[in-house]
Amino acid sequence: MAKKSIDKTICFPGEDGWELWKHTEDRFGQAEYELVEEMQLDESGSCEPFKDATHYAFPINSVFAVPIWVRTDEPSVIKNLVEMQLEKMGLKPTSGIGQLLDYQTVCVIESEPSSETQEGPVKRSLILATVLNPDYKHPLPKTGSKEFDVSARFLQMPGEHIVVWKELGRLVMAVDHEGELEYFEGLTSNKFDSAAVNEINCILLGLDGAGPVSGDFKNGIANEISGAHIWLDEFDQSAKDEFEEVLGIKVTAGAKPDPFLPESTSNLVPSEVVEQRVQQKKSQKIRYALLGAAVIYLLLAAVLLGAYFKEKFEADKLSKEVKRLEPSVKWIPEFREKWRELSSALDSDSYPAELLHRATAAVPPQDVRFTSFKYDDRVAVGGKLKRIIVIDGQSKDAKAGRDFYALLTKNKDLEYFKWAWLKQPQVDPRKKDRTAVFQIRGETTL
């Protein structure tokens, strides 16, 4: 049966470069991890990032480990005490928008009651604070990661042991206590030799001397450790023997195990990841806005297209009806034209003599006289046939001409004509009688 692939990957710092491990399950549901890609470091110590990885393991050299004893096991109090201790040491992060500080409880020890001071048992917690170096340049996956933690927590550590391995060309070490990561640090050496042994010994003596880690253990951290592992393919055998002699513990060697996915990871998040997530949210909002606008546009287009096709359907339907009726009404335009030709002879309202009679009915007996009366019953104006009357007249003065115009416009027998001045009454200064001449135009649509 084929293996069932689970879309979880780990970007992990290998011995000389970065590794991408894929988490899968076999047919029995057991977790398996497969190395699917590697990126080698260039001369500057950097490399191209992977495209994506759900989990990112911080190299030990990019994180500070700070073990702290606190006289409580109350989670609400521990956070403030840890931040106070880190601030005293100058290690509390003060810049960056990411989550650069996290801590985990390694163990809780209850002291014996004191007969001298009459004090009862006191609980003390060993806390391992991890501080992410804000200046470390991580080759973060291009599409980002969801989970972050220090690399040591992605490795199965033997309890009460010192473990030494190699990350990105440099040795690193970690100490495990009862299944919890107790301390870790990057070494200056790039190979396991006598210098590396002395450096590890100095680190352990420093921890015992300062008392942050083993101050409440009975015999100090060195005596709490039951052995050491060297996860290296090549190392100096004499250095291994020296390591056993200096620490007085059994030292074994073997291959580094494959990384695995821990049940839970830290709250650490690099600043650049937070910036990336903020930008992704902005981009997502823009995409949603554009998508919404596109949906509205498509709906509007659909409505307009629906209305268009509906109108087109109605227009096509009417066009077909017109074509169907066209043969039965084709005689109408010809008949209408003939009727127009006959209307001037049949319609008394179009007789020129009758129109002249109606127009002169408004003329005062002595003040106004016509000098010309023109009538045309078929004048094309603006694409329409109209009847036109043009009256030229003479009046004793300009006022008499205007009075006649007022009477003409009120003539009920000619009310279907629209009258307008072509030339308002005007006195000819060359004439001594001061008579005025005028011109009036009337029109009506056939």
Write the layout of secondary structure elements.
Blueprint: E1 4-13, E2 17-25, E3 31-40, E4 55-58, E5 63-70, H1 75-89, E6 101-110, E7 123-132, E8 147-150, E9 161-167, E10 170-177, E11 180-186, H2 194-210, H3 220-224, E12 227-230, H4 237-247, E13 250-253, H5 271-329, H6 331-346, H7 352-360, E14 368-381, E15 384-395, H8 398-409, E16 418-427, E17 436-445
Parallel strand pairs: 1-4, 4-8, 9-12, 12-13
Antiparallel strand pairs: 1-2, 2-3, 5-7, 6-7, 9-10, 10-11, 14-15, 15-17, 16-17
Helix pairs in contact: 2-4
Walk me through what this model shows:
This protein is of the alpha+beta class and 446 residues long. The chain has helices at residues 75-89, 194-210, 220-224, 237-247, 271-329, 331-346, 352-360, 398-409; strands spanning 4-13, 17-25, 31-40, 55-58, 63-70, 101-110, 123-132, 147-150, 161-167, 170-177, 180-186, 227-230, 250-253, 368-381, 384-395, 418-427, 436-445. The strands form 4 sheets. A 5-stranded mixed β-sheet has the order 3-2-1-4-8, with no helix packed on it. It has a 5-stranded mixed β-sheet with strand order 11-10-9-12-13, with helices on one face. Strands 14-15-17-16 form a 4-stranded antiparallel β-sheet, with helices on one face.
